[in-house]
What we know:
The chain is of the alpha/beta class. It is built from 7 helices and 12 strands. Helix 2 links the parallel strand 3 and strand 4. It is globular.
Amino acid sequence: MTLPKVEEITIEQEMKGLSILHLSDLHINKKSSVDSIKELVSLCNKSSAQFVVITGDIIDCKVKFIKEKLEILNKIEKQTYYISGNHDLFYGFEPLKNCLKNLICLDNKTEIFEYQNKKIAIGGFSDRFSKFFGIKREEQKVLKFLQNYEYAILLAHQPKDYTFALKSNCKLFLCGHTHGGQIYPFHYVVKLSQPFLKGLHYRDQTAIYVNKGLGYWGINFRFKANNEISLLKLR
């Protein structure tokens, strides 16, 4: 996992000055180096962001093989929220949660983050594949909570969940999953199943950001879809 330069993304929204470090699709596996994970933690700690989000697919093998690598993520000093991706569910989400004791899991849960004397509601969904693993997605519970706040953020792994953000009072929807296509021309295949491939989009009053992810799926190669760390700056 080679870390790219942090990309600053300006988002036109009401919460002036808020910055969020957005990570996704780390796909940590047996081949991932300890040094690269330590470098990522250092980057998070030095960032100007108020908090960090990880929108799924943290792992790409069973936790027992990479436990020591995952525990390095607990050294992120900023408030960090994460939700599950399909790979996390497949390889074992409970063992993953047990490793990430200092990070906040938002699968079907909500939290409040206070910024400039204002309360920001943050909620998340488990991945859309949850039902195949006997996990119920509590969508209405999360949305009902978010609707009570002037400023709300929804996290999900897959872009197609953006419709839930529109139904609630969410000003910001963050996701990953697509890898931006990872290898051209697979971009076109991804577009058949997902409404957005990468980057920033607006629908109604909601800003949508699709992170291309840090890691790889299948082979360690990308073409016309570089990996990404995003610093989302609201103004």
